[in-house]
Structure formats: structure tokens, C-alpha cells
Records
---
Amino acid sequence: MFMLGNFILAIAKLISFVLSAYIWIVIGRAVISWVNADPYNPIVRFLVQVTDPLLMRIRRYLPPMGGIDLSPMILILAIVFLQSFLVPTLTQIGAGLR
């Protein structure tokens, strides 16, 4: 069972890393939206393609208010919630199986 515990601990660390990286990607997308970035730049295209699916879902329920788009902040809060709930839960399950 210790192998399954180690596997779950590794999954928890991987999820934590991916969620942290995605927060930085969302922040980068928000910063790029403040400036007039070239839409054909590969970095800008990557940030848009990676963040648009989730941001568009949030924008369906929370449209921009007064020119302010709160969807990146809502997405970051959701990611922080997942990091605070999912990662410790997986860590405890993995530690229990060791």
C-alpha cells in the first residue's frame, strides 16, 4: 500500500504545481489585456488559448461590469480553493496509505 500512498502524494504535488503555474498564466493574461499586445505574438496566443475556455465560462455568468472584467479574479479564487481543498485532501489520503 505504500506505493499507492506515494503515488497519491506525487499526484497531489503535481496538481499543486500545475494549479500554481496556471495562476501565473491567468495573471499574465490579465496583464496582457491591459496593454495593446500584438495578437499574433506566440506568447499572447498561448495565453489566450490556454485561459479562454475557463474565462469564457465565467463570463457567461458574470459579464464585465462597467468595463471591469472580474473573471480572472474569480478563476484565481477558484484555483486557490482547489489548492486549499484538493491538494491537502490528497496529501492526507496518501500519507494514510503509507
Note: The mean pLDDT is 93.
---
Amino acid sequence: MKCEMAKDNIVLAYYGELPDELAGSLEHHLMTCDECRVELEMLQAMEPNLASLPMVEPSPNFLTQSRMRLDDALDLMPPRGVLTRLRTNFFVWMGHLRSAPALATLLIGVGFIGGNFVNRYQIAHAPKPIADKFYKNDTQAVIANVTGIDRTPDSELVQVHYNKIVPETIEGSLDSPEVRELLLKGASATTDDVRSLSVSMLANECKHGHQCAARDDGKGVRNALLVALRYDKDAGVRLKALEGLQPYIAQDHKVRDAVLDSLANDPDAKVRMTTVSLLEPVQHDSSVRQVLRHASTDDENPYIRTVSYQALQGSDSIQ
């Protein structure tokens, strides 16, 4: 077996696609050829690096174009000549002749290659985390501003320099840092629908305890919900923020103060009624009792006055 053919067979053997009749010839050649043995070692050394890289799924358009180009290339290939077939059959026949003395070596080589192939197959088909996908569309770019104008002297040619705003889309898990950062920005968007959906998703994540720890830098999901509860003009958004902050009323004084402020000052009666029920676990707190006492006498809604008074009576019985 010549080195040119041996190098092709090394690749086939590495991926477990080498016919059995050629394995013995390749094994014998590797025992006598240092150059081809180095080729195999270099190919094996690439495996750890390749296994550490994420598997990127090609787009449907790319697969379709590749199949079409492959079909065209196969159609253009000339038929195999008689000499080519004879040469292939000759090497197959020679492989059979050399296989008997090296049967033990062949079995070891096939076992190594087969185990390597099974390991690579398991790595390739192991569950992969959902990768974020970015979608860009330069055709929808909007002109943001004009930065400069140059005119060629004594001509009608003008160069206008400007910047564009290009819309983009990301697709990924709610646990993705990029997606979560965009949702935090969406919580303060000017569009009501975007702001409502962002706060709703963040509140649901906070309710289930997903990356909702308090932060001192004024950032994070819990701080975004506090801002929405205090300052958002949409009562529905404030209600969703309350839902996400509910698990932290007893342990986080900032959350408790924000809820008390909503009970005392929120213009929407439904929001105020919701805060009364959420404050039940901390009704014994003096600051909570003070706000409840104020709501039981001064709130314009009679139902809120009633439930606040009942909450005060319940806290008295607990004490």
C-alpha cells in the first residue's frame, strides 16, 4: 500500500468507515511507515479540541444548497475506468493475503478504532445546551442621523455620511445572560406590550427563584421589578411585578418597603388590594401595621379599608 492511499484510508479508519479487507493492509503499512504513523497521531490529537467545540446546526438553506452542489458534482464526475477498478480490486486482494499473519494486530486495531468511533458518536449525540441564535436583517436598517456632508468642488457629487440602526433578534433560553439582559432592558421600554411581556417573564423567573438574588449595584431582575412596581404607569405591569416580588417580602426590606409604598400611594385600587393580601406573612411588623392602620381609615376604597382592618385584627390575635 502506497502512502497516498494509506493517508486516505487513515481518515476512513479514524471515522470507522474503512472496509475490513483494507484494515490489515493499513495496519501493516503503519508499522513500517513513520510518515503515515505521524499522520494518524496528528489526527488523533485533534479529537480533544474538536470534542470541546459546540456543535453548530447548519441552516436549512445551507443544507439544501450543499445537497444541490453535491448532486451537480456527482453528475459531472466521469465514470470509473477499467484500470481504476483493477487497481482497487488488486489492493483488496493483497489485503486478504496479508491479513492472516497479522490477525491479532488487526483485531487490536479494529477494537481501538471501533472504541474511538463509539466514544466520538456518544460525544456528538450527547444533549447540548440550547445555543443563542442571532438574526440580522440589514435591509431593515433605519437611518439614525447624518454625521457629515462632503461636496466635490465644481460638480454635483455629494457624499452624505450617516449612521444606521439595524434591528436584530436573539433566540435563546431564559437562563441565557444575553436574553436576560435584553429582558431587563425591555422592562423599561416605551412600548406597553414589550414592557408588559418583559416584566411578566422576569416576574415568573423571580417567582421560581431563578437568578433573582438581591444585588447592591442596582441591577438584576429583582431591582428591575422594584422599579416597575414603583414607577410604571401601567397598573397591569405593577401587578405582575408584585407577583414576582411576593416570595421576598418577608426577607428583603427593600421589597417590603416598596409593597408598603404601593399600598399607601398606588392610584389603582386593584394594586392596593393585592398588596394587602401579600403583606399577610409580615403583618406583625410595626411598619406594616402602621400602613395598614392608615389604609383602614383613610383609603378611598371601602373594601380596602375593610380588608386592612381585618388584617390588623388578625395580627393582633397573632401577637
Note: Residues 3 and 33 are 8 Å apart (CA to CA).
---
Amino acid sequence: MRRNRNVKIVATLGPASSDHEMIRALFEAGADVFRLNMSHGTHDELRARHALVRRIEKEAGRPIAILADLQGPKLRVGTFGAGAAELDEGEAFRLDLDTAPGDMHRVNLPHPEIFAALEPGVELLVNDGKIRLTVQQCGPDFADCVVTVGGMISDRKGVNVPDVVLPMAALSEKDRRDLEFACELGVDWLALSFVQRPEDVTEARALARGRAAIMAKIEKPAAVKCFDEILAVSDGVMVARGDLGVELPVHAVPPIQKRLVRRARAAAKPVIVATQMLESMIESPMPTRAEVSDVATAIYEGADAVMLSAESAAGAYPVEAVRTMDNVAISVEGDPTWREVINASRRIDHIGIADGIVAAAREIAETTEVKAICCFTESGSTPMKVARERPQVPIIALSPNPATLRRLCLTWGIHCVATGPIDRFKSAVVSAARAARDLNLATEVDQIVVTAGVPFNVPGTTNILRVAPCDERLIYRAEAE
């Protein structure tokens, strides 16, 4: 089984997709990566879903990636004596550390780190921005605000502070426990919430100790401002448009999305576009036209993956949602305009031998009848660099390392194939030819491009490019000559 598209699909597992039959159906409909949302479900439930994905991976005979999404710190108000209160525009309202039940005049905010960062003029958003407060005066244990957008506020509603960098880590104690659990379980990617600075990513990387790749979720204005620094220390990024759309004006999110996707591609690091992509399919078997256009836009921009959240985790039509994304992707990538946009957005920023080799591989593929670019890889860096070029032919990543292949399932255009240990270039070429034929990407009369590094099994040594036939007899004949 292989996909007839380049962009990858991430499907979140949850109550609606927690048994073997449903997860298998999601995979067959087009899911390449399964997301475990650490905000929901017990460790036992998450362990069971992880085991089911690995069982389906074995049944299908191809790698499947698993991404664990850490919850991050949750900032919430306390409780109200009546369960809720009505706040009127222009009225005063206080947030403080007093644990007494709140009313229309005040409520507890049990986060001293927020008060430490506040200053007059800072805006606080409550309940996804439905209520807005502007700080007038503040101290280490209180903030006197004026209500700029009123409404009903109730127990434990979330609070966003978009104007300041909060003096708190991206990892809560729960996140640390979840991170260790996910790494011991054997997930391939860790998505890190509440990232504000590159140090948040390096802390998570130190805790992961190489057991999973680190993906930074870009969901706060502070992360947008220092995106290049965060990208440099991350293995991939997620454009998490939900919180971005709360903490920034909604009209600012589309250009930010486009900019971040291009910069991640230039760095040869996978980027996921996420949140509310097919939201209406939680309850409807058909998406809206606007949602289809939203998914298509991310694909035109060159995103590595598009993601389903509640649509596949808790919705009534999880398989239909995956199938819709698959169909949109195939349609978009069949449009000549898509190729024009993808080529026009390619950034030439080659700095090493491997960069030059993958650029040459793409040029050869575009000017000859080559059917695929085959990369032997230990760490996965070379096929990701080939993917950055967005070639017109399929990319085949071959590796003896299952962890590398699973992580590559998230990257644009890559077909992952497990191989045995390779110690000679001729053996590498033969394995590449067999893989191209087995995937029905080439026949014996076709040619492929093969990249590899000598010595083998050493990360970062890509230094060979060869155009080779898919007929093994011709490979052996050339070797003899």
C-alpha cells in the first residue's frame, strides 16, 4: 500500500477511534501519523492505542508514526460562588490569589507567575477571548482590570496572556510525567505545547534523551517572534492555529501560517498545519467549502502534513474526515498550479555537500525519465533535504533503523522502506531498485537516482549520487565492468 499524494495526514485518536477496526480503517483511508493527545485519556488508554497502531503497522508491513502531544500548562480562573457571573463592559474586575469563591467583582487566578509578568495596559483573554480584561493596576498577588468585552464567566475558564512572555516553563509536572511515559512507550514524536522561547524546546530535548523527535507547537505570539531560534533547536514544528487565533487577531494568522511553513521547509524540517481544518465533520459527513479550501491552502503552501483533531478523535465521521483530506490532497496535487506554486516557493540555501547532492538529484529527476529518488539514511536528514526540494518524482527513504523510518512518515513525499544492514554501494543500489519496483513506482526498464554515504551507517555522510537501472542484471553487469 502506498499513498498517491505527497502531503501527509495526521489523525488524532480518541473515544471515537480507539479499537483495532476503526484505527485500521483510518490508516486505510489515508492516515500516515496517529496523534495521542496527552490532555485526554489515562495512561492505560493511551498505551492500548499505541499497541493497536503498532499491531496495524506490523499487519500493513510499513512504518507508521505516532505523535504524543503534551498538554502544557493550563492557566485557568478559579470558581464562582454561583458557578458563574456576568461581567459588564466598562466595569472593574479583580483577579487575585484569594481562594474564596468569585463573584461579579473578583475571582481567584491561582497563577502567581502571571501576576509577576503583568503591567498596566496588558490584555487578558478569558474563555478563548470571549471575555477581555485590560490591566489598570497590578501587584504580585492581584490585577485590577477593566472589562473591555463582557459576558458570562464561569468556573475554571482558560486565561490567555498574549502581550507578555510568562516566567514559566513549557513543561508542567504532568507534562514531565507524560513525556517520560510516552518515551518509554516508544512514540516517535513529542509535540511540545506552550512554547515561548528556544529554551523550552531544549529542556524537553534533554528529558527525551533522543528517544523521540521534538516538535514545537507555535501557538503563542512570543513563539512567532523568535520562530527562527525555536526552529533551529526543534526537529519539526506545528502551526497550532487555535491558540494563535485567540492570542492574535484572527486576520493575522493566515500570513503567519504561510511564513512559518516556508521557513520550516527551507530548514528541511517537517511542518504540520493544525486545528479546525474540517471542524464541521465532527457532526456532519460533509465538510464546508471553506474548510476544504483551508486544507487546500495548506497543501498549496507546501506543508508536510495536515492534521485532524476532534474530527477523528471524537467525531461521528472519523473515516470520512480522513478520506476527505486524502481526496483534497490528491485533487490539489493534480493541479498544475500546485506545482507552479511549489516550485516558485523553493528557497536556494545550500550549504554543504549533501545539500548539493539532493539539489542535483531533483534537477536530474526533472530533466530525465528518472522515476524515483532513493535515499539510504541513518538519521533521516538526507531524505528530509530531498523533500525540501519538493521533487516531481517520489522519494524513497531506505534505512535499517525503524525509529528513523517512523519519524520520516511525517515528512512530505517520503515512502519509507526498511532494509537490512548495507555495507556496499552495489547492495544499496540493488535494494533501492527492488524497493522502487515493489512500490510500483518503477519497472525493470526504468531508472532511479540513488544517494548514499560512504562509509555506510554513519549519519551525515551523504556523498554519492548515481543514476541506476531498476534491472538488477544491469546493475551487476555494470559492477563487473
Note: The chain has three domains: 8-73+170-332, 84-160, 353-480.
---
Amino acid sequence: MKKKLFVLLTALLCVVLFQSAAMAKENAAEYLSEYYGITFTGYNVSVEEFNNALTALGAEPLTDVESLTVEDAVIGAVRVANMEELALAYAGNAGKILDDEEVRVDEKYAPYVAIALDQDLVDDDDNFSGPLTARRVAGMLYRAAEISGKGRHYIGRVSDDEILPELQSTLSAMAIFDDDTLSNAGIEILVQGATTGYSMKYSGYDARFLEENTLRYGHSDPTHAMQLVALMKAENLDAYVQIEPKVSVYEYMLDWGEPSDPTPTYAVHEMDDRYFAFAIEYDMALEFDSPAEKEKFHDLIETYAKKYDNIVDEDGNPTKPLLTSSWWQPLYYSTTGMKNAEFKELVDNVIAYKGDTYSIHSFSVPEDSDAVAEAAKSVDANLTVTPRTITVNPAFYRYITGEDHQ
């Protein structure tokens, strides 16, 4: 009897730990708060709070509900997931699904609960009883938001079995994009010398991650991204992964070596005795499970993906193994602070036309931000310039300031 009880308790503990780990990765309550201003004030969720959350997520509120039940919350989550029509159309099959899952609910809830179980809006072992806690509701609503495209946009997690094939598929599908008017304005700003480079981005690729836990790692080589994710997996450094393509234009320094021949994705052009590189690149957005995990990324790059004078030959080729296409001055940045004192603050000067889905991003030291804004306004008074403080790795900071080539 004692042995059976021990096995049962162990199994229950494993379930609890698994659910806690999944929730920690999801950070559902934090996500809903950051992106939708949704917060639940108490342990249990009131009808009013739940309806306010549904409205914030663009779903129809519940009516004729005095005290919120799990089944009521499921109806709301199905609406957020844009699955209500499917639930009602599939109502004839609801009984079979619920029988298979050994779930018993009132008939009016059956279609919603069946679809919620099918789409993992609720756990298979949810007995639809117990307190409707804020944590429980946040998890349900967040999973619904992801289904409807209102949550994170991501390829997968580093720990996923299929992350590398999925990442390869995304990288190989990257295509050049442009906004002629905005692009011409960016070139004019560069020629004026107000900045050393910029990247054009399209808002539709935005990862929509929790910024406190997120770093964006910029590069141009798809194989480098594959190796980096494989390295993170080997080092048990887990994170959500998204590729945010960008078209980068930056000043090329001749002490990096002679520019290579142009390719369909890269070229260097001379303008007024200065050289500018044009490249299709990407920001690999990485949302870690916590700020502490995020801090570990720097050491990984310094060890495996960063060139230094003492580990390269006279031609700049690494004399110790590094990831393919490792750079002298890699770029990774956070929109929130970093505990590592080596990281420094820069300003991401976001330049766009009001309401446009394209924007160009020009990094500068804080004291040069006003000059970037003035240059943009001199090119086109209709441009908006929004300065955003970011925290960057030390090597890229040295690039921006011209302090060193490494």
C-alpha cells in the first residue's frame, strides 16, 4: 500500500512540475499584461475582469453569467481563438470527443469544451472543477491568443525536436523586401554622415516576445543561425526562436579587408569616398525563460562565435574552431537593461512614415540621437523619429564608437 501511494504521489508531483515548467516557459500572465494590459487582481477571476480581458483580446464578452465557471471561461477562450463557429458546426461530434476524454459537462457547453480539448486550450486531465484562478485563466487565454495570432510569433523552441528543420525552412524562405520612399530617405541620411548604418524591417515579422527576457541577434548567414541554435541546444539554453528578416545598409570599414564580390544578397558600393554594404540579414529573436537565462548568451558568443586578433591568422581566418561566419563585432541587443556591466546603452532611432508597416532602424550613441532625427527631418519632414534605448554587447558598441575593430 505504501509503495502504491508513493508511486501515485510521485506521478502527481511529476504532473505538477511539468505543468509549472510549461507555465514558466509560457509566462502567460506576464505576456497578457505586457501586450494587452490584462491583469487579474485576485486569486479568483471575476466575470467583469474576464469580460474586460475578452474585450482587450478582441472577443465578444460573456452575457448572462453571474459567477464565472471553468466552462464559461472555455467559451471565452474559444472565442479568442476564433474557433466558435467551428465549435458550433462540429457540435454533433462533441459527445464522442468528451466520451473519449471521459469529460462530463452540461450540453450547452459541450461543443466549446470539445474544441478546447482538441486545441489544447485546456489540459486533457482538467476535471472542470476547483477554483478558477488567475493563473489558470491566463494560461487558457494566452493559448487561445496564440492560435488566433495575437500571441508570440515563433518558429519553435530551441529544445523542440524539429527546431532545426523548421528554422532551415524559415531561413530559406527569406526574400528581399523594400519600401522605395523610405529606403531612399535612409540612403540620404547615411550620406549625410548622421549614422553609420541602418536596417529596414517589416512589422509583420515581429516576434512579439516578452522584452525583459529577449535578445535579438543580428547576422546574415543562415548556416550560422542553424549552428548557433544547435549550440544552444547542446548547452541546454532554451528559448523561443523567431527570425525577423531585415535589409541592412551599413558603412563598410576597409580595415575589415577588401570587399567581396557582390552576390544576390550582398554588395558593397562606394559613395563619396565611403563604402556601404547592402545585405539581406536577419535578427534572430530569442526569448529566454528568465532574465538570468538571457544573461548566459553573451558567454556563449564570446567563446564560440567571436573573432579576436589572438585567435586569427594574418588573413583573418580563425585559428581555433568557431561557428561558421563568426564576426569580429557581432550584434545582439536587448530593449531592457542587462546586469552585465560590459553591455552599453545605445539608441535605436526608429524612422518611419506614420502608419507605415516598414521602418528603418539606425543605432547611435545617445548624444548623437538628435543629429539622426535632424538629418531625417531634413530629408523629409513627414518622417517620424522615435528614439528607443537599447543595451548592446560590448563588441558592437566598440563598432558604433569606432573604438576598436574587435
Note: The chain has two domains: 2-147, 156-401.
